[in-house]
Design a protein that fits this description.
Elements: H1 10-19, H2 28-36, H3 38-47, H4 49-60, E1 69-72, H5 78-83, E2 87-90, H6 93-101, E3 105-108, E4 121-127, H7 136-146, E5 147-157, H8 163-170, H9 176-180, H10 186-195, E6 198-208, E7 217-218, E8 223-232
Parallel strand pairs: 1-2, 1-4, 2-3, 4-5
Antiparallel strand pairs: 5-8, 6-7, 6-8
Length: 238
């Protein structure tokens, strides 16, 4: 994977720390919170275009299939629209309205109970949303169910021990959205993927330590925004 360089300014770094929005799908309490702040959440992307571009580039660097794909926790549809993901699901009605305005075929619902048939999609995406899901393992099992054989699950997340992850965990008492999040590490995610029937394929990262650089690199050790691509495992019959 080729390194992608993007300039990081002191001003953009300050914005990342102060204003970075969190995940889009969760139990009903966080869905209600995001509905109340849907416009403010969505405006973050306009105020931080360089950060958003770096995150999109980190996902694109893994080159997963986008045509027949689903974003689980689509929120306002910013990532789905930028990546060409046509379908999305989220429990927050106001967020879905914004996603539909961006041309996303958006369904209301929860990640743990996807209203889709088995083996429907080539790829599924959870972009900064898994940490807010009520039952992460069940949500990943549901993603496995709706993926076709050898389908790809892409998870973008903020590792709990990364520069931003540490800050957000300290901010739990100040921000109810962060308080509801269940952050996890890269190694913990690998265990979840194995448990739910996936095999990791590749990873990329941006918002790199120590200065939250917007370069995109392979791997996961330095990033506050890490993307993992995993393939659905299928049991062979004897």
């Amino acid at each position: 994977m080729k390194k992608i360089k993007t300039k990081t300014t002191a001003r953009s770094k300050k914005k990342i720390f102060q204003s970075r929005p969190n995940s889009k799908i969760a139990h009903s309490t966080s869905a209600q919170q995001f509905d109340r702040h849907a416009k403010d959440y969505d405006q973050w992307f306009d105020k931080n275009p360089d950060v958003f571009k770096a995150e999109v580039n980190a996902i694109l660097s893994l080159a997963p299939p986008f045509e027949n794909s689903l974003e689980i926790g689509v929120g306002s549809g910013r990532f789905a629209a930028a990546l060409g993901i046509r379908h999305g699901i989220d429990p927050a009605p106001q967020m879905l309205s914004l996603a539909r305005a961006r041309g996303i075929d958006a369904t209301i619902g929860e990640a743990e109970h996807l209203p889709f048939t088995d083996e429907r999609y080539d790829s599924a995406f959870m972009i900064t949303s898994l940490c807010f899901m009520r039952n992460q393992l069940n949500a990943m099992k549901e993603a496995h169910r709706v993926l076709k054989a050898n389908g790809i699950l892409v998870i973008a997340f903020i590792p709990k021990n990364s520069q931003l992850g540490i800050k957000y965990r300290k901010d739990r008492s100040k921000d109810s959205l962060y308080r509801l999040a269940d952050f996890f590490s890269y190694s913990e995610l690998l265990k979840k993927l194995k448990t739910t029937g996936f095999s990791i394929q590749n990873s990329s990262q941006t918002l790199l330590n120590p200065n939250l650089s917007l370069d995109v690199l392979p791997g996961h050790a330095r990033g506050s925004f890490v993307v993992v691509s995993a393939r659905k495992l299928t049991c062979s019959r004897a």
